[in-house]
Amino acid sequence: MNHQQLAEDLKTRIHAAESGGQAKYHERNRLQDKLFVRDRIRLVLDDNSPWIEDGALARTLEADLPGDAIVTGVGMIHGKQVAIIANDSTVKAGAWGRVTVQKILRMQDLALRSRIPVIYMQDSAGARLDEQFSIFLDRNHAGKIFYNQIQMSGVIPQVCVLFGPSPAGAAYLPAFCDFVVMVEGHSSCYIGSPRMAEMVTGERVSMEQLGGARMHCSQSGLGDYLAANEEKALGEVREFLSFMPWHWEEEPPHKAAQSPASQKPLEEIVPSSQNAIFDMQEVIDALVDNNSWLELKALFARELIVGLARLGGRVVGVVANQPKVKGGVLFPDSADKGAWFIQLCTAYGIPLLFLQDISGFMVGSAVERQGIIRRGAKMLSALGQSTIPRISVLVRKAYGAGYTAMAGASFQSDSVIALPTAKAAIMGPEAAVNAIYYNKIQELAENDRESFIAEKRAVYDSELDIMHGASEFFIDAVVPGERLRTELIERFSIASRKVAVPVSRRSMVIRG
User: Fold this and answer.
1) Kind and range of the H or E element at 145?
2) Helices and strands in the chain, H and E counts
């Protein structure tokens, strides 16, 4: 063939490869409101930005295997390069074959060496059993994908969007990522399918119950954001990356400061009564820059709020007790949630703001069986090894080990400050009076107990005034609500200059 014929032949081959699988599989996706893989890539990347693809012609000499069911390349988000690894569900239902694995490994290696984030677009039926001996046993087979993810963890951001299934071994791919978005009604992630679960255990369960998007976002905690559709999911990927450095040695991106969305005074939001319910989200909205709040795991362990925001243009991570859900008490799941988020922010140099209104960790036989001590220690371990700037604000209650887990002074936070409504102690008045005066209460006549308890609680409560802690210099400052935002901006500016000195060791041992 001459040069013109070669060029035309190449153009034809590239077009065929970029078209994906057979028309009937494209139609199936359309009927399911699912986008073609290349449309997903175009939506997440900057408009009219460069796209450099590797392996587009992989296995195009074989029937019905264009690209070996995966698209890999480098594009741009927010004007900076990102690596994309995206299943093509129109080819073998996105199942992994021998070249699929090699394309994934190559792109992971490129991302790590170039220090750019990776976005995994997962929509796969799993591994192809007819090719299992080409993808399972060797050092450069599928297991190395997860090994690579672990090496990349905390070095470059890894994001996973589940547009469809992610079964068996592939289920671990999102589990190693920093941010996992799932599409309601479409995403699923599971070790064994409903049919396999019934065969092994006798359990009959639907796909949604077993590993659906809402289940993972509200119960297992695997999902960080539940999106209504694919376009929304891709928008959240761009939003998440707007807060992140491109690798661990970069600073998180600054933006111009904006006034908070809410101008409501904190004095009107936070009740002075320790038992009155309020919404901590209102406090957050009154502190952080407008249009800068991204809540993560919003449906999971809702007694603890975690999310990314900007404060005076600076990226911060927020960890806040939510008194309107279970009183803001820490449970096993919320301890896991807090540990994960603290580790995420520590890894990428994002300062942490803690907003405390907590009476402690939950008690009782149920949470003890669920590992409240072990999982609480996981959160404390994440906090204790964190070397980033940390500021804790005592909004109202700050009791027991909850005070410590929310970055109390004993865990060496850069600043611990309080609103005038704050009270701090090992126990709140109710629990303390019961513990101190239990025998006395039992000796009293039934009619005398209520007034005695009320009197002792009032005395105990008066001693918890935060001014006692401020007087002894146990905390750094008591700040009026109207000044809190300005105080936080200035204190984070000071803390950003500190030089972290990590402890010399091979590794921590965290009881997971």
Assistant:
1) helix 143-152
2) 20, 17
Report, in angstroms and rounded to the nearest whole number, the Rg of the chain calculated over CA atoms: 26
Q: Give the pLDDT of residue 440.
A: 78
pLDDT at 180: 98
d(CA 251, CA 237): 19
**196-227 burial string, b = 16+ CB within 10 Å, else e?**
ebeeeeeeeeeeeebbbbbbbbbeebbbbbbb
Q: Looking at residues 253-272, what average pLDDT do you find?
A: 95
Instruction: Tell me what percent of the residues of the chain surpass a pLDDT of 90.
Output: 77
**Does 429 score more than 80 pLDDT?**
no
pLDDT value of position 425: 85
Task: Quote the CA–CA distance of 64 and 22 in Å, as a whole number.
Answer: 8
- 285, two tokens: 């909205």
Partnered with residue 119 across adjacent β-strands are 84, 159
Q: Using alpha carbons, select from 301, 259, 297, 304 the residue that is nearest to residue 281.
A: 304
Distance CA 406, CA 389 (A): 14
How far is residue 403's CA from residue 422's CA, in Å, rounded to a whole number? 12
Say what angle helices 446-462 and 429-443 make with each other, to 10 degrees: 150
pLDDT average, residue stretch 362-385: 94
The predicted-structure confidence for 481-492, as pLDDT tens digits, reads as follows 999 999 999 999
Q: Which residues are CB-contacts of 50 (< 8 A; sequence separation ≥ 6)? A: 75, 76
Question: How many Cα atoms occupy the beta-carbon half-sphere of 279 within 13 Å?
Answer: 5
Per the listing, tokens 């990347």 go with: 45
Q: Do the Cβ atoms of 55 and 49 come closer than 8 Å?
A: no
8 A C-beta contact, residue 46 and residue 77: yes
Give the model's confidence band at 260: pLDDT under 50 very low, under 70 low, under 90 confident, else very high: very high
Length of the chain: 512
State which amino acid sits at residue 476: D
Q: Which two tokens stand for residue 101?
A: 């694995």
C-alpha 57, offset from chain centre: 36
Measured CA to CA, the distance from residue 291 to residue 281 in angstroms comes to 14
Task: Give the pair of three-digit tokens for residue 508.
Answer: 């921590």
Element (H, E) at 182: strand 179-183
Contacting residues for 475 by C-beta, under 8 A, at least 6 apart: 394, 409, 416, 417, 418, 424, 466, 469
**Beta-strand pair 165-167/225-227:** unpaired
Instruction: Please check the confidence at residue 64 and state whether its pLDDT lies above 90.
Output: no
Residue located via tokens 């995206």? 86
Tokens, residue 190 = 């599971």
Is residue 354 within 8 A of residue 392, CB to CB? The reply is: yes
Q: Tell me if residue 394 falls in helix, strand or coil.
A: strand
